[in-house]
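Example record for the data management plan.
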Amino acid sequence: MYENIRIYLASSWKNEKTVLQVAKDMRTAGLDVDCFAERNHGEYIANPEDDGIASLKSDYSKRVYNAAKQHMDWANCCVLLNPAGVTPISKLGT
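Corresponding structural encoding:
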């Protein structure tokens, strides 16, 4: 029924418990889901000591972007759970 559908589940870390439950429910329904909240992404939290420009130019930002893009490229569908901030919303157009 859901052959070849790979879902990237996007939301805010503030919704972590809901996101985990939705991912579980989707899998129970037979869907293939990539859930960001199941990975240890503590390293992806912005450094408050950096200004925005320095952060964007850093190797750290490139690693964060490449890791997220890898997961988005795997998927052929993105589901956004609101409320969500700018980062998860930007993934809808990737």
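Summary line stored alongside the record: The first helix runs from residue 16 to 28.
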